[in-house]
Specification:
This protein is α+β, with helices and mostly antiparallel strands. It has helices spanning about 5-15, 60-75, 100-115, 165-175, 185-195, 200-210, 225-235, 250-255, 265-270, 285-295; strands at about 25, 35, 40-50, 80-90, 120-125, 130-140, 155-160, 215-220, 235-240, 275-280, 300-305, 310-315, 320. The protein has a seven-stranded mixed sheet with strand order 8-10-7-11-9-12-13, with helices on both faces. A four-stranded mixed sheet has the order 3-6-4-5. The chain has a two-stranded antiparallel sheet with strand order 1-2. It is globular, with a radius of gyration of 20 Å. Residues about 25-35 have low confidence and may be disordered.
Length: about 325
Protein backbone atom coordinates (compact mmCIF):
# COMPACT_ATOMS: atom_id res chain seq x y z
CA UNK A 1 0.00 0.00 0.00
CA UNK A 2 2.89 2.34 -0.72
CA UNK A 3 0.62 4.52 -2.85
CA UNK A 4 -1.44 5.51 0.18
CA UNK A 5 -1.00 5.60 3.95
CA UNK A 6 -3.18 3.89 6.53
CA UNK A 7 -5.15 6.97 7.57
CA UNK A 8 -5.90 8.11 4.04
CA UNK A 9 -7.06 4.62 3.12
CA UNK A 10 -9.23 4.44 6.25
CA UNK A 11 -10.82 7.74 5.24
CA UNK A 12 -11.59 6.34 1.79
CA UNK A 13 -13.02 3.18 3.34
CA UNK A 14 -15.28 5.25 5.62
CA UNK A 15 -16.60 7.17 2.63
CA UNK A 16 -17.88 3.90 1.15
CA UNK A 17 -19.80 2.81 4.25
CA UNK A 18 -23.62 2.79 4.16
CA UNK A 19 -25.45 5.52 6.06
CA UNK A 20 -25.58 4.68 9.81
CA UNK A 21 -28.83 3.60 11.41
CA UNK A 22 -30.56 5.66 14.07
CA UNK A 23 -29.04 3.40 16.75
CA UNK A 24 -25.52 4.63 15.91
CA UNK A 25 -24.74 7.80 17.88
CA UNK A 26 -21.07 7.94 16.90
CA UNK A 27 -19.79 5.95 13.92
CA UNK A 28 -16.57 5.31 12.08
CA UNK A 29 -13.75 7.83 12.44
CA UNK A 30 -13.49 8.05 16.21
CA UNK A 31 -11.79 5.73 18.72
CA UNK A 32 -14.94 3.64 19.11
CA UNK A 33 -18.52 3.54 17.94
CA UNK A 34 -21.35 4.51 20.25
CA UNK A 35 -24.78 2.92 19.84
CA UNK A 36 -28.06 3.32 21.69
CA UNK A 37 -29.89 0.10 20.88
CA UNK A 38 -32.45 -0.34 23.65
CA UNK A 39 -33.94 -3.76 24.44
CA UNK A 40 -31.68 -6.82 24.20
CA UNK A 41 -28.43 -7.03 22.24
CA UNK A 42 -26.80 -10.12 20.72
CA UNK A 43 -23.13 -9.99 19.71
CA UNK A 44 -21.03 -12.51 17.78
CA UNK A 45 -17.51 -12.55 16.32
CA UNK A 46 -16.53 -14.56 13.24
CA UNK A 47 -13.17 -14.92 11.46
CA UNK A 48 -12.50 -15.67 7.78
CA UNK A 49 -8.89 -16.50 6.91
CA UNK A 50 -7.34 -17.30 3.55
CA UNK A 51 -6.41 -20.99 3.32
CA UNK A 52 -8.72 -21.93 6.19
CA UNK A 53 -12.19 -20.58 5.37
CA UNK A 54 -11.71 -19.60 1.72
CA UNK A 55 -9.09 -19.61 -1.02
CA UNK A 56 -8.24 -16.33 -2.70
CA UNK A 57 -7.56 -17.96 -6.04
CA UNK A 58 -11.11 -19.32 -6.19
CA UNK A 59 -13.05 -16.12 -5.39
CA UNK A 60 -13.06 -12.41 -6.19
CA UNK A 61 -12.11 -10.08 -3.36
CA UNK A 62 -15.62 -8.63 -3.31
CA UNK A 63 -17.05 -12.13 -2.96
CA UNK A 64 -14.67 -12.84 -0.06
CA UNK A 65 -15.91 -9.73 1.75
CA UNK A 66 -19.55 -10.52 1.08
CA UNK A 67 -19.15 -14.11 2.28
CA UNK A 68 -17.35 -13.05 5.46
CA UNK A 69 -20.26 -10.82 6.48
CA UNK A 70 -22.86 -13.42 5.49
CA UNK A 71 -21.42 -16.16 7.68
CA UNK A 72 -21.06 -13.75 10.61
CA UNK A 73 -24.69 -12.66 10.29
CA UNK A 74 -25.81 -16.30 10.26
CA UNK A 75 -25.04 -16.44 13.99
CA UNK A 76 -27.58 -13.67 14.57
CA UNK A 77 -30.12 -15.51 12.42
CA UNK A 78 -29.75 -18.54 14.70
CA UNK A 79 -30.88 -16.39 17.63
CA UNK A 80 -33.79 -14.84 15.77
CA UNK A 81 -32.19 -11.40 16.22
CA UNK A 82 -32.65 -8.38 13.96
CA UNK A 83 -29.27 -7.57 12.41
CA UNK A 84 -28.02 -4.15 13.40
CA UNK A 85 -24.31 -3.33 13.13
CA UNK A 86 -21.14 -5.02 11.87
CA UNK A 87 -17.52 -4.09 12.63
CA UNK A 88 -14.70 -5.43 10.44
CA UNK A 89 -11.02 -5.95 11.19
CA UNK A 90 -9.31 -6.36 7.81
CA UNK A 91 -5.86 -7.93 7.70
CA UNK A 92 -4.06 -7.38 4.37
CA UNK A 93 -0.98 -9.34 3.23
CA UNK A 94 1.86 -7.48 1.52
CA UNK A 95 0.67 -8.26 -2.02
CA UNK A 96 -2.69 -6.51 -1.53
CA UNK A 97 -3.09 -2.75 -1.58
CA UNK A 98 -5.54 0.12 -1.55
CA UNK A 99 -7.73 -0.93 -4.47
CA UNK A 100 -7.94 -4.48 -3.09
CA UNK A 101 -9.08 -3.25 0.33
CA UNK A 102 -11.75 -1.13 -1.34
CA UNK A 103 -12.97 -4.12 -3.39
CA UNK A 104 -13.28 -6.24 -0.24
CA UNK A 105 -15.23 -3.49 1.49
CA UNK A 106 -17.51 -3.13 -1.53
CA UNK A 107 -18.46 -6.79 -1.11
CA UNK A 108 -19.19 -6.26 2.59
CA UNK A 109 -21.07 -3.02 2.00
CA UNK A 110 -23.16 -4.52 -0.79
CA UNK A 111 -24.59 -7.25 1.42
CA UNK A 112 -24.93 -4.84 4.34
CA UNK A 113 -27.05 -2.53 2.20
CA UNK A 114 -29.25 -5.42 1.04
CA UNK A 115 -29.92 -6.51 4.62
CA UNK A 116 -30.12 -3.12 6.31
CA UNK A 117 -26.94 -3.64 8.32
CA UNK A 118 -24.94 -0.59 9.46
CA UNK A 119 -21.12 -0.60 9.25
CA UNK A 120 -20.05 1.88 11.95
CA UNK A 121 -16.34 1.11 11.61
CA UNK A 122 -13.53 -1.36 12.15
CA UNK A 123 -9.77 -1.60 11.81
CA UNK A 124 -7.11 -2.18 9.17
CA UNK A 125 -3.76 -3.91 9.61
CA UNK A 126 -1.06 -5.85 7.83
CA UNK A 127 -1.29 -9.63 8.21
CA UNK A 128 0.57 -12.71 6.92
CA UNK A 129 -2.60 -13.81 5.08
CA UNK A 130 -5.82 -12.11 4.03
CA UNK A 131 -8.14 -12.20 7.04
CA UNK A 132 -11.42 -10.65 8.10
CA UNK A 133 -12.69 -10.66 11.68
CA UNK A 134 -16.26 -9.41 11.78
CA UNK A 135 -18.21 -8.56 14.91
CA UNK A 136 -21.96 -8.46 14.33
CA UNK A 137 -24.55 -7.00 16.67
CA UNK A 138 -28.23 -7.91 16.62
CA UNK A 139 -31.23 -6.60 18.52
CA UNK A 140 -34.51 -7.66 20.04
CA UNK A 141 -37.09 -5.93 22.22
CA UNK A 142 -36.28 -8.26 25.13
CA UNK A 143 -34.00 -11.24 25.90
CA UNK A 144 -37.05 -13.53 25.84
CA UNK A 145 -37.36 -12.94 22.08
CA UNK A 146 -33.91 -14.45 21.40
CA UNK A 147 -33.60 -18.22 20.90
CA UNK A 148 -30.63 -20.11 22.40
CA UNK A 149 -29.45 -23.67 21.69
CA UNK A 150 -30.51 -24.81 25.14
CA UNK A 151 -34.32 -24.75 25.09
CA UNK A 152 -35.22 -28.04 23.38
CA UNK A 153 -37.36 -30.58 25.27
CA UNK A 154 -38.35 -34.20 24.57
CA UNK A 155 -41.37 -34.22 22.28
CA UNK A 156 -40.22 -31.20 20.25
CA UNK A 157 -40.04 -31.50 16.47
CA UNK A 158 -36.88 -30.86 14.43
CA UNK A 159 -37.21 -28.43 11.52
CA UNK A 160 -34.59 -27.48 8.93
CA UNK A 161 -34.70 -24.51 6.56
CA UNK A 162 -33.70 -24.64 2.90
CA UNK A 163 -31.47 -27.39 1.52
CA UNK A 164 -28.18 -28.88 2.69
CA UNK A 165 -25.16 -30.53 1.13
CA UNK A 166 -24.69 -27.94 -1.60
CA UNK A 167 -21.73 -26.18 0.00
CA UNK A 168 -19.93 -29.47 0.69
CA UNK A 169 -20.49 -30.55 -2.91
CA UNK A 170 -19.28 -27.13 -4.10
CA UNK A 171 -16.09 -27.59 -2.09
CA UNK A 172 -15.52 -31.01 -3.65
CA UNK A 173 -15.94 -29.45 -7.09
CA UNK A 174 -13.40 -26.74 -6.22
CA UNK A 175 -10.87 -29.30 -5.00
CA UNK A 176 -11.58 -32.02 -7.60
CA UNK A 177 -12.94 -30.37 -10.78
CA UNK A 178 -13.27 -33.70 -12.58
CA UNK A 179 -16.31 -34.45 -10.38
CA UNK A 180 -18.18 -31.80 -12.36
CA UNK A 181 -18.69 -34.32 -15.14
CA UNK A 182 -21.38 -36.03 -13.08
CA UNK A 183 -23.73 -33.01 -13.16
CA UNK A 184 -24.73 -30.31 -15.62
CA UNK A 185 -22.67 -27.11 -15.73
CA UNK A 186 -25.69 -25.16 -14.45
CA UNK A 187 -26.00 -27.46 -11.43
CA UNK A 188 -22.26 -27.30 -10.80
CA UNK A 189 -22.48 -23.50 -10.85
CA UNK A 190 -25.28 -23.52 -8.27
CA UNK A 191 -23.28 -25.80 -5.99
CA UNK A 192 -20.21 -23.57 -6.22
CA UNK A 193 -22.33 -20.55 -5.34
CA UNK A 194 -23.74 -22.36 -2.32
CA UNK A 195 -20.16 -22.48 -1.06
CA UNK A 196 -19.00 -19.01 -2.08
CA UNK A 197 -22.17 -16.94 -1.56
CA UNK A 198 -24.25 -18.25 1.38
CA UNK A 199 -27.39 -16.42 2.50
CA UNK A 200 -27.84 -15.69 6.21
CA UNK A 201 -31.37 -16.77 7.15
CA UNK A 202 -32.20 -13.62 9.09
CA UNK A 203 -35.86 -13.37 8.11
CA UNK A 204 -36.34 -17.08 8.65
CA UNK A 205 -34.69 -16.99 12.08
CA UNK A 206 -36.92 -14.12 13.15
CA UNK A 207 -39.97 -15.97 11.83
CA UNK A 208 -39.07 -19.14 13.74
CA UNK A 209 -38.44 -17.16 16.92
CA UNK A 210 -41.79 -15.40 16.65
CA UNK A 211 -43.54 -18.70 15.92
CA UNK A 212 -42.21 -20.19 19.14
CA UNK A 213 -39.00 -22.09 18.35
CA UNK A 214 -37.58 -23.58 21.55
CA UNK A 215 -33.94 -23.91 20.38
CA UNK A 216 -32.03 -23.01 17.23
CA UNK A 217 -28.56 -23.24 15.64
CA UNK A 218 -27.10 -22.41 12.23
CA UNK A 219 -25.36 -25.12 10.22
CA UNK A 220 -21.76 -23.99 9.88
CA UNK A 221 -19.97 -27.21 10.88
CA UNK A 222 -22.43 -29.63 9.28
CA UNK A 223 -25.84 -30.99 10.29
CA UNK A 224 -24.38 -33.86 12.31
CA UNK A 225 -21.97 -31.72 14.31
CA UNK A 226 -24.33 -28.80 14.87
CA UNK A 227 -27.19 -31.10 15.85
CA UNK A 228 -24.79 -32.47 18.45
CA UNK A 229 -24.07 -28.96 19.75
CA UNK A 230 -27.80 -28.29 20.15
CA UNK A 231 -28.44 -31.66 21.79
CA UNK A 232 -25.63 -31.13 24.29
CA UNK A 233 -26.71 -27.58 25.15
CA UNK A 234 -30.31 -28.69 25.72
CA UNK A 235 -29.48 -31.95 27.50
CA UNK A 236 -31.54 -34.03 25.07
CA UNK A 237 -31.15 -36.56 22.27
CA UNK A 238 -32.00 -35.87 18.62
CA UNK A 239 -33.25 -38.46 16.15
CA UNK A 240 -32.93 -37.49 12.47
CA UNK A 241 -34.37 -39.40 9.50
CA UNK A 242 -31.96 -38.97 6.59
CA UNK A 243 -34.73 -39.83 4.13
CA UNK A 244 -36.44 -36.57 5.12
CA UNK A 245 -33.41 -34.34 4.59
CA UNK A 246 -33.81 -31.61 1.92
CA UNK A 247 -30.65 -32.24 -0.11
CA UNK A 248 -29.56 -29.84 -2.86
CA UNK A 249 -29.76 -30.92 -6.49
CA UNK A 250 -26.54 -32.52 -7.71
CA UNK A 251 -25.27 -33.53 -4.26
CA UNK A 252 -26.20 -37.19 -4.73
CA UNK A 253 -24.28 -37.46 -8.01
CA UNK A 254 -21.23 -35.56 -6.72
CA UNK A 255 -21.18 -37.58 -3.49
CA UNK A 256 -21.31 -40.96 -5.25
CA UNK A 257 -18.65 -39.90 -7.73
CA UNK A 258 -16.47 -38.87 -4.77
CA UNK A 259 -16.89 -42.27 -3.09
CA UNK A 260 -19.76 -41.69 -0.65
CA UNK A 261 -22.40 -44.41 -0.35
CA UNK A 262 -25.18 -41.83 -0.74
CA UNK A 263 -25.71 -38.09 -0.89
CA UNK A 264 -27.07 -37.90 2.64
CA UNK A 265 -23.64 -38.90 4.03
CA UNK A 266 -22.06 -35.83 2.44
CA UNK A 267 -25.00 -33.62 3.41
CA UNK A 268 -24.80 -34.68 7.06
CA UNK A 269 -21.02 -34.33 7.45
CA UNK A 270 -20.37 -31.35 5.17
CA UNK A 271 -20.46 -27.85 6.61
CA UNK A 272 -21.10 -24.26 5.55
CA UNK A 273 -24.73 -24.59 4.50
CA UNK A 274 -25.76 -21.85 6.98
CA UNK A 275 -29.30 -23.14 7.14
CA UNK A 276 -31.17 -23.13 10.46
CA UNK A 277 -31.92 -26.20 12.56
CA UNK A 278 -34.73 -25.47 15.01
CA UNK A 279 -36.76 -27.36 17.58
CA UNK A 280 -40.42 -26.47 17.96
CA UNK A 281 -43.14 -27.65 20.33
CA UNK A 282 -45.44 -30.05 18.47
CA UNK A 283 -48.42 -27.69 18.83
CA UNK A 284 -46.46 -24.90 17.11
CA UNK A 285 -45.05 -26.85 14.15
CA UNK A 286 -47.63 -25.77 11.56
CA UNK A 287 -47.32 -22.13 12.59
CA UNK A 288 -43.53 -22.29 12.36
CA UNK A 289 -43.62 -23.92 8.92
CA UNK A 290 -46.11 -21.34 7.63
CA UNK A 291 -44.01 -18.48 9.04
CA UNK A 292 -40.82 -19.60 7.29
CA UNK A 293 -42.60 -20.28 4.02
CA UNK A 294 -44.07 -16.78 4.21
CA UNK A 295 -40.48 -15.50 4.35
CA UNK A 296 -39.91 -17.22 0.99
CA UNK A 297 -37.90 -20.25 2.14
CA UNK A 298 -38.69 -23.96 2.19
CA UNK A 299 -38.61 -25.78 5.54
CA UNK A 300 -38.68 -29.49 6.32
CA UNK A 301 -39.59 -31.67 9.27
CA UNK A 302 -36.58 -33.98 9.69
CA UNK A 303 -36.82 -35.62 13.12
CA UNK A 304 -37.65 -35.36 16.78
CA UNK A 305 -36.26 -34.57 20.21
CA UNK A 306 -36.03 -37.41 22.74
CA UNK A 307 -34.91 -37.88 26.32
CA UNK A 308 -31.26 -38.88 26.56
CA UNK A 309 -28.20 -37.53 24.80
CA UNK A 310 -26.43 -37.57 21.46
CA UNK A 311 -27.59 -37.60 17.84
CA UNK A 312 -28.93 -40.57 15.91
CA UNK A 313 -29.17 -40.29 12.11
CA UNK A 314 -30.76 -43.18 10.21
CA UNK A 315 -30.44 -43.61 6.43
CA UNK A 316 -33.23 -44.80 4.17
CA UNK A 317 -31.89 -48.37 4.28
CA UNK A 318 -31.69 -48.41 8.06
CA UNK A 319 -27.97 -47.75 8.42
CA UNK A 320 -26.72 -45.38 11.10
CA UNK A 321 -24.88 -42.39 9.66
CA UNK A 322 -22.02 -40.82 11.56
CA UNK A 323 -23.03 -37.40 12.92
CA UNK A 324 -19.57 -36.02 12.21
CA UNK A 325 -18.78 -32.58 10.84
CA UNK A 326 -16.11 -29.92 10.49
CA UNK A 327 -13.78 -29.20 13.39
CA UNK A 328 -11.84 -25.94 13.11
CA UNK A 329 -8.86 -27.31 15.05
CA UNK A 330 -8.68 -30.87 13.69
Amino acid sequence: MAEMGEFELLARLRNRLPKPSARVVLGSGDDAAITEPGGATATSVDASIDGVHFRREQMTLAAIGRRALAVALSDLAALGARAGEAYTVLGLPEDLGESDALEILDGIAGLASELGVTLPGGDLTRAPALSLAITVVGHASSPAELIARSGADPGDVLLLTGEIGGAAAGLLLAERPRLGGSVTEATAGLLRRRLSDPSPRLAEGAALAEAGASAMIDLSDGLGADAGHLAEASGVALRIDAALLPISEGVEAIAREAGYAEGSELAVSGGEDYELLATVRSARVDAAIDAVRSAGTAISRIGEVLAGDGVEISSADGRRLSPGGYDQLS
